[in-house]
Design goal:
By secondary structure, chain A is an alpha/beta fold. Chain A has 14 helices and 17 strands. The longest helix of chain A is centred in the C-terminal third of the chain and has 21 residues, at 423-443. Chain B has helices at 2-29, 36-44, 57-67, 80-91, 126-132, 148-152, 179-183, 211-217, 227-231, 256-260, 277-287; strands spanning 101-105, 158-161, 166-169, 189-193, 200-203, 237-240, 243-246, 266-269. In chain B, helix 2 (36-44) crosses helix 3. The longest helix of chain B has 28 residues, at 2-29. Chain B is elongated. The chains are: A alpha/beta (444), B alpha+beta (288).
């Protein structure tokens, strides 16, 4: 039986052009740019100096605090400078720039193609390994995995959900990973189950990937601990809270975490990264990125090193089409348009979508007619039209009462609005301002 | 017939009278005392309700003034010294003279000076654009140009110059209420001391990048070369975060820093034209 979440949701055209393109390895570029803040939490502290020689997989920036992540060199070469470069945030951030020379990996990494099935490490060792290898959630939010794997004292986790939904249109990186590295993902899942101390895990996959559901089901071959659950296609099913609701029927209360209802959700890509870290001793320095768009001559899924400029990825996909209007990092629903092609790929980059100018411009917005389609579409049960008008008027305290902090910024409201009102833009403004106000208050 | 009319008048009249008596005693019992001076002061205030004094509206400001021990620290930027003197007279307190201020836009990143590197297609609102990214140019500190300051101004004292894409303050209309300062997400607008004839000298840049990238992003960016700092005899200039800042309360308008600045980031406004250097040289020659 196919399941889905109950509240809201939309059905954007899928456009999964690259679902049939197997993962291609993109060679390292001449220079990589590695931002020290590419995860949620405090930025890592630079641990190399200008002129240092680094090897692939070597630690170059150290986590600073509990919610932070290590960063490793994705290439071998020389640190040419430590400078501020515009990254995906749209602002200049501290970056380590490395000139690539050859591709020499640190000797600790097991580069053999054999699959290591036996899990030798204990729960604590697994969590420590995730911290050492800089593993973060690869679904896009880049929350440090080691934090998520440690169940807070007093709380109990009894289910691990692997997110193989990939509900964003166009993107296929998780889909391909599940098809090509299915066994590794399953081992990665078992590793995380061991770390969390749970005996049950469910892999949630949307029904538009029947091959992945079948493939993983075959690999599991009736194993009792992990189950594959097919899901009805609906955006934003990949949202943590939506996925939990869809699979278990449990609802995460407002302001609470999934672990409060006994669930931890990890992305399928994260499961693969955890497998590589724990079994192969390989830090997170490369990931699968979907580079797609109807105007590209050779769209595909590429295994790229972190820090590769987006321009290189587009080159790999057949070069930049002349009529390009917008390039989006991430999926078209939640992704962000890039202001610069030299922006580097970071741990959270799941895709690059190229749109021609004719398709990418925002339509003129018209007044709200109170049709309430945004309310029907909101997966968090909020009232986007109201939140927008509150933000326009600057009534941020009222927005708090209207639970704006629950907004997951999925963009369903802006997508569905027949008047093309910039609902999410204003809601995000309200949310950011409110969170800033609350932080200032707590400091006082 | 006449009986009915009479009865109606008597009944309604007595009900009205009874109600009036009850209401009178209730209103006496629950009377809220309010200082009559609050009304008088509110009357004296301009009634713009702009919030420039730091209070929500003129009424709240009047209440605060009546409660306060001295007028120190209170100022109505719209009414200025005259209104404050009136209020001091009403309250029988000493007048505190504060320097008049004026809003100054510290960015010269016009279309010509600051090349556009991307096109913004989102909501034309500075706050929203500021959350999203650094802006259409490589300067991530300067003016975004969507006019939040213009929308915030209640006195029509600021407008967008279409040629440059930058806001311009009309000095005569500006009352220094500070609404634009609060509205600007990038803290570009500053309230500075108002000199006579609206003369101004200030660093018209807020870019905190190092010299190279700053200059690359904008022709007139402050590169923190320290030249102005070295030439200032009055200690009015400080350099912090790769950016020079002139304290308007220490500045004497000597104009030395203006000529020293290699990028023309420091600008002078409303001064009489300087004698061109050649002319001065000629003058010296003729005198000899």
């Amino acid at each position: 039986m196919l399941k889905t979440f109950t509240k809201g949701g939309v059905h954007p055209p899928e456009n999964k052009l690259t679902a049939g393109c197997s993962i291609e390895v993109l060679p390292p570029p001449e220079t990589v740019i590695i931002p020290v803040a590419q995860h949620l939490g405090s930025p890592a502290a630079v641990a190399v100096n200008k002129g240092d020689r680094v090897l692939t997989g070597q630690l170059i920036a150290r986590a600073t605090g509990y919610v932070s992540a290590n960063i490793h060199s994705p290439v071998s070469g020389t640190v040419s400078r430590i400078d501020t470069v515009t990254d995906i945030s749209g602002y200049k951030q501290t970056c380590i720039i490395i000139d690539v020379l050859g591709d020499e990996w640190i000797s600790d990494i097991d580069r053999s193609p054999d699959i290591v099935r036996e899990i030798m490490l204990t729960s604590e060792e697994i969590i420590q390994k995730c911290l050492d290898c800089g593993i973060v959630g690869l679904g896009g939010a880049t929350f440090p995995t080691h934090v998520k794997l440690k169940v807070p004292a007093g709380k109990k986790c009894n289910l691990l959900i692997i997110n193989g939904v990939e509900c964003e249109p166009w993107l296929t990186s998780d889909h391909r990973l599940m098809l090509e590295k299915g066994e590794e993902i399953i081992i990665g899942t078992r590793i995380m189950m061991k770390a969390l101390g749970v005996t049950k895990s469910i892999i949630g996959i949307e029904n538009n990937k029947p091959d992945a559901i079948k493939h993983l089901g075959k690999l599991l071959d009736g194993a009792g601990d992990i189950k594959v659950q097919g899901l009805k296609v609906k955006y934003p099913q990949g949202g943590e809270k939506q996925l939990i609701k869809a699979i278990t029927g449990r609802e995460v209360p407002s302001g609470k975490l999934p672990v409060d209802v006994g669930v931890v959700v990890q992305n399928a890509g994260t499961a693969f990264a955890v497998y590589e870290a724990v079994q192969k001793n390989k830090p997170l320095f490369e990931r699968v990125v979907t580079v797609t768009g109807r105007s590209l001559s050779k769209p595909g899924n590429f295994l790229v090193r972190i820090g590769t400029p987006v321009a290189r990825l587009i080159e790999g996909a057949g070069g930049l089409p002349g009529d390009t209007g917008k390039i989006i990092s991430g999926g078209p629903m939640m992704g962000k348009a890039l202001a610069n092609l030299q922006t580097p790929v970071v741990k959270g980059t799941s895709g690059i979508v190229v749109f021609p100018a004719a398709e990418s411009s925002r339509p003129q917005s018209a007044p709200c007619i109170r049709c309430t389609r945004c309310i029907s579409a909101c997966p968090m049960g909020l009232e986007p039209y109201l939140l927008m008008s509150l933000a326009e008027k600057g009534l941020f305290e009222r927005m708090k009462a209207e639970k704006v902090t629950d907004c997951i910024e999925c963009g369903s409201c802006s997508y569905i609005c027949p008047a093309h009102r910039p609902l999410l833009d204003y809601i995000r403004l309200g949310k950011t301002t409110l969170l800033k106000m609350m932080r200032e208050k707590s400091v006082k | 017939m006449s009986n009915t009319i009479l009865l109606t008048v008597v009944v309604l009249g007595s009900v009205g009278l009874a109600a009036a008596v009850i209401l009178y005693f209730i209103s006496q019992k629950f009377k809220v005392y309010e200082d009559p001076r609050i009304d008088i002061i509110q009357e004296a205030l301009p009634g713009a309700n702009c919030g420039g004094c730091g209070f929500t509206g003129c009424r709240n400001f009047a209440e605060a003034l009546v409660k306060a021990d001295s007028l120190n620290g209170f100022n109505c930027p719209v009414g200025g010294a005259t209104v404050m003197a009136d209020i001091a007279k009403i309250l029988g307190k000493e007048t505190v003279v504060t320097d008049p201020l004026v809003a100054v836009v510290r960015c010269q990143g016009s279309y010509e000076n600051r090349p556009r590197t991307s096109v913004y297609d989102g909501v034309k609102d500075c706050r929203i654009a500021h959350i999203l990214y650094g802006g259409e140019t490589d300067c991530h500190y300067g003016c975004l140009g969507y006019g939040d300051c213009v929308k915030a101004c209640k006195f029509d004292a600021i407008y967008m110059d279409e040629k440059t894409g930058l806001p311009v303050v009309i000095d005569e209309k500006c009352v220094a209420c500070g609404a634009c300062v609060k509205a600007c997400p990038r803290n570009i607008i500053e309230l500075r001391k108002k000199f006579k004839k609206d003369r101004k000298i200030y660093v018209s840049c807020v870019n905190c990048d190092r010299g190279g990238p700053a200059r690359k992003a904008c022709k007139v960016a402050c590169i923190a070369c320290n030249k102005c700092f070295n030439v200032c005899k009055f200690g009015a200039i400080t350099i912090k975060n790769n950016l020079a800042y002139i304290d308007s309360f220490k500045c004497t308008l000597c104009r030395k820093c203006v000529t020293e600045c290699p990028t023309n980031a420091i600008i002078e406004l409303n001064f009489p034209p300087r004698k061109a250097e050649e002319e001065t040289v000629k003058e010296i020659i003729t005198q000899q």
